[in-house]
Write a structure and sequence with these properties.
The chain is mainly alpha-helical. It folds into two domains: about 140 residues, Four Helix Bundle (Hemerythrin (Met), subunit A); about 80 residues, Nonspecific Lipid-transfer Protein, Chain A (2-Layer Sandwich). Helices cover about 50% and strands about 10% of the residues. It contains eight helices and five strands. The strands form two sheets. The chain has a three-stranded mixed sheet with strand order 4-3-5. A two-stranded antiparallel ribbon has the order 1-2. Helix 1 runs parallel beside helix 6, helix 3 crosses helix 4 and helix 3 runs parallel beside helix 5. This is Maleylpyruvate isomerase family mycothiol-dependent enzyme. Keywords: Isomerase, Pyruvate. One of its GO terms (molecular function) is metal ion binding.
């Protein structure tokens, strides 16, 4: 993963919501129970939180991802979801711009610095940023779909999501436009489709083209 991939994903997201109107902002996203206002607020808040993760890491310090943990995170999303559309868009733009500026300050020797998010490192953190931007752009339901996910992102996401493969299942994904991907041991389940649709299925997202084969019941998102 390169920072340019994150910047490309960020540009796609901010361009997608530019000019958002009130009706569209109140409409449902593709995430159950969340409007687009909820989702935009979440991505903005994530960006602010991760900017802080980067800034503290570069000082050799750790800080909680969200003050007050997950309950405070959820409350902040609910509190911000119904803001005017223009405010949602401006907040997202500011948050993402600040986050990209923070990542720009990370030097070649900084990537192993620890962060609190998943008890990981800045190298893992920029991957998390990539996932957040790419996936939630599609989740907005504004025309962007997983079909736009780059092949490099699909490869990364499939690897990240390996904990979703059930025990006792040898999952084989056979894309029509990419290499075979396998995980697990046991009863073989072979699924076919495009790379983006197979990746979207594994991520629990709608697919634009069919995924064919005996689908196992996946474990929760890691």
């Amino acid at each position: 993963m390169a920072l340019i991939d994150v910047k490309t994903a960020a540009a796609r997201l901010t361009e997608l919501v530019d000019g958002l109107d009130e009706t569209t902002a109140r409409g449902d996203s593709l995430l159950p129970g969340w409007t687009r206002g909820h989702l935009i607020t979440h991505v903005a808040n994530f960006s602010y939180a991760f900017t802080r993760q980067v800034e503290y890491a570069l000082r050799g310090e750790l800080v909680e991802v969200y003050d007050g943990g997950r309950p405070a995170r959820n409350a902040a999303i609910d509190a911000g979801a119904d803001r005017p559309a223009a405010v949602l868009v401006e907040d997202l733009s500011q948050a993402v711009t600040g986050l990209l500026a923070a990542w720009d300050r990370v030097g070649p020797d900084d990537w192993s610095r620890p962060i609190s998010h998943r008890n990981s490192t800045l190298a893992h953190g920029i991957d998390a940023t990539w996932r957040e931007l790419e996936i939630h752009t599609s989740d907005l339901g504004l025309g962007a779909t997983p079909d736009e996910w780059p092949a490099t992102f699909c490869a990364h996401l499939l690897d990240f999501l390996r904990p979703r493969t059930p025990k006792g299942v040898h999952l084989v994904l056979q894309p029509s436009d990419g290499p075979v991907w396998e995980d697990g041991t046991g009863e073989e389940r072979v699924l076919t489709g495009t790379l983006t649709s197979l990746t979207a299925w594994y991520a629990g997202r709608p697919t634009t083209t069919p995924v064919e084969g005996p689908e196992p019941e996946l474990l929760p998102y890691p």
